[in-house]
Amino acid sequence: MADREEHRVIIVGAGLAGIAAAITLERAGIDDAIVLEKADRVGGTWRDNTYPGCGCDIPSNVYSFSFNPNPDWRSAFALQPDILDYIEETADKFDTYRKIRFRTEVTEARWDNDERRWLIDTTNGSFRSQFAIFAGGPITEPKLPDVPGIDSFEGEIFHSARWNHDLDLTGKRVAVIGTGASAVQFIPEIQPKVAQMHVLQRTASWVIPRLDAPMPGAVKTLFRKAPATQQGLRHGLDGVLRLLTLAMRHDKAARKLNIIGKSFLRAQVKDPELRKALTPTFSLGCKRLLISNDFYPALTKPNVELIPHALSSLGPRTITATDGTTREVDVIIFGTGFDVSHPPISRRIRGADGHFLSEAWSVSPEAYLGTTTTNVPNGFVLLGPNLLVYNSFLGIAEDQMRYVVDAIKKADEYGFEVFELKPEALREFNDDIQQALERTVFNHGGCASYYLDANGKNFAAWPYSTTLMRKLLSEFDLEKYDLTPIRQPAPTR
């Protein structure tokens, strides 16, 4: 067997969650950790998504590391270039780059029962570790619809997450497939350039105002000189998001919020036929909330046509919707999201039973507290199943890292080398989660969202309060795991 570089902890992925993991471990005194990153730059989804208008739909002061507040956000809701700059600045400030191995893509991470270690093969060497943190993230692999003729289209075709910046859209006839979170951002940006835009909408979604504004210089100065003021704003915004999460836990409460979306739509779209096509038939919050001030106005422009039907097929130069509408186009842009129910990293994690995690997750991913699962000893998944709330993903990753750090410290304190989640703990937790989800807007808001798998099971949403999530992730609960003591060396004669 080839020599393997050994570390106590190996982190896979240098996006926001991976950077949070590396810095949190370092701050907790767990120094022997490295990060394996397939690209040549940190940033994860904020590195890969560069479409026009790309930005965050969580306020900047919440969507940032708790240990590195940024007083210099240019606006209340940060755009992609600013977020990527912030991630890189954080990695530099905390000397994290020395721990990152760029251009090192994990091909397989397998648990070896005899060695009691993770053996990780990559495109740039082999590694060995006691603990592994998988921070690949849920929004990494673009999803393209399986429609007839997709290989026969003779024009330009790409997904918004792999934007073709070499293509000049000026004067082009463009079809946009999808009206989700990415599309509502890039449609207003490209609309003035194109000759004609045809937007195919399978299902209308609720859009609410983006309460954005440039950050005044005086406010930046205040944040810099009195950091407590920015911390206070962060706590206040977090409280607002928690209230929204509370409403989403109850379908009846969420339904009362529909008036917000209806009023915004009525104010921005005067044409009754277009407004009808853009009005959702489900409760606000059932699908991901979209925030934009210029999406609706863009759809009212003379060079834009909304086709309220899904894509049916493609021809060499045409798109056809399910109602038979056919249009000639030069460019097709897919704003069809990501395959979040089948995380790519799961196809590269081989557990203690010899099977890939993707096999256990073939129908729907399951984890305990969205962090650990059976047959994956000493392994953690960041931003795993059933942790979605209307709040910052980054905050969730930091909460999970408290659980991870406590697990590693307890291994040292109590003298165990391996922990593995008990099957009954996984089953009991997920049964409770699914039962609790039954009363939420996610399950009974009247929509089919990406939160639900092919069988209608909700694998994404967290049905309880954010406070409870943070409490449960604050301490590693040993009783949920089978523990293996440190192997004693054989006596010498």
From TrEMBL:
<dbReference type="GO" id="GO:0050660">
    <property type="term" value="F:flavin adenine dinucleotide binding"/>
</dbReference>
<dbReference type="GO" id="GO:0004499">
    <property type="term" value="F:N,N-dimethylaniline monooxygenase activity"/>
</dbReference>
<dbReference type="Pfam" id="PF00743">
    <property type="entry name" value="FMO-like"/>
</dbReference>
<dbReference type="GO" id="GO:0050661">
    <property type="term" value="F:NADP binding"/>
</dbReference>
<keyword id="KW-0274">FAD</keyword>
<dbReference type="InterPro" id="IPR036188">
    <property type="entry name" value="FAD/NAD-bd_sf"/>
</dbReference>
<comment type="similarity">
    <text>Belongs to the FAD-binding monooxygenase family.</text>
</comment>
<keyword id="KW-0285">Flavoprotein</keyword>
<keyword id="KW-0560">Oxidoreductase</keyword>
<dbReference type="InterPro" id="IPR051209">
    <property type="entry name" value="FAD-bind_Monooxygenase_sf"/>
</dbReference>
<dbReference type="InterPro" id="IPR020946">
    <property type="entry name" value="Flavin_mOase-like"/>
</dbReference>
<protein>
    <submittedName>
        <fullName>NAD(P)/FAD-dependent oxidoreductase</fullName>
    </submittedName>
</protein>
